[in-house]
Each structure stands twice: as structure tokens, then as C-alpha cells.
Amino acid sequence: MATSAAPAAVGALLSILRAAPALDGVHIVDGPPSVNLTDRHRIYVGYSPGADVSIDIGQSFAGAGARIRDEDGSIACYAETRAGDKDMALRRDRAFELLAAVEAALRATDAAPEAPTLNGTVLWSGLTAGSLVQEQGPNGALAGLSFTVAYRARI
């Protein structure tokens, strides 16, 4: 029996995002960034700049008998888009387009009815929070959108 649904949930989230047609050409990264930041559009799963944790979990017994537990989890994520120009509106709009694509990928469709359950690893999941950062630097504009994918699982 698994002690947490978090590893399977993160793996399923990565698979769903990597398969999403709307995210074609976006680098989906497992965990924190590596040294090579040449990709202009990235989504990090299990990482958000400045966050204290990658995944936060809490568990409680689901009923009498202590046989089943419910787990509530939050997966830190971060969508980033950058370019060599100084047009912040384009970067900001693109960051929210990436977020919308993530949200759409987590909704049930005829083609992906198990998406909200992260392919059966949790009871439900969805976007629950977000915050935007914007920067102008010597290499152009950057917009980053930290967001949380929350889930509930029964283990």
C-alpha cells in the first residue's frame, strides 16, 4: 500500500501536460530548472521560485477503523515565458495562455475522461491558486505564473 499518492499524482500530471496538444512546443520540466534556460516557454511541475516546498500533503483517517486515509495535496507549479523583446503584455498574455492550457488539460473530455483524477491516481484535482511575476532584464521581458494543482486522494 502506498503511503502517499503524491509521487503517482506528479507523474500523471507530467504525462497529461506533455500529451496536451495546446502545450506542444512548451518544455514541461519535472522539478526545478537546470542550467540551460534556452527554452522560451516552460512549465515546471513540483517547483515554483521562492516556494518553500514542492508538494504539500496532509492526511486524515477516512473513517473508523483506521484502514483508509484521505490525502489532500498541493503541487507547486510554475509557467514561465520569456523573449528577447521588451513587450511585457505579450509575455503576460502568453503566461496566462499556458495556465489556461494546463487548466484545460485537467478537465474531463471525451478523449481524456480521467484527466481530473490525474489518470486515476487521485479522486479529483484542479487549479486552486496563482500569482504572476514580471521582470524586465538585459535579455528582455519575462513573465512567470506560479500556480497550484490541488488534489484529494484515498489511500
Description:
The chain starts with 5 loop residues before the first helix and ends with a strand. With 155 residues, it is α+β, with helices and mostly antiparallel strands. The chain is elongated. It has helices at residues 6-19, 88-105, and strands at 27-30, 41-45, 55-61, 69-82, 124-137, 140-154. Strand 3 (55-61) and strand 4 form a beta hairpin. The model has no long low-confidence stretch (mean pLDDT 92). Strands 1, 2, 3, 4, 5 and 6 form a six-stranded mixed beta sheet that branches. It has two helices and six strands.
Keywords:
155 residues; 6 strands; 2 helices; elongated
Strand content: 35-45%
Shape summary: elongated
Low-confidence regions: none
Return the structural class. Answer: alpha+beta
**What's the total number of strands?**
6
**With helices defined by DSSP (H or I, 4 residues minimum), what is the helix count?**
2
Order of helices and strands: HEEEEHEE
What do the pLDDT scores average to? 92
Gyration radius, rounded: 17 Å
How much helix is in the residues? 10-25%
Span between N and C termini? 8 Å
For the report, how would you describe the main beta sheet? 6 strands, mixed
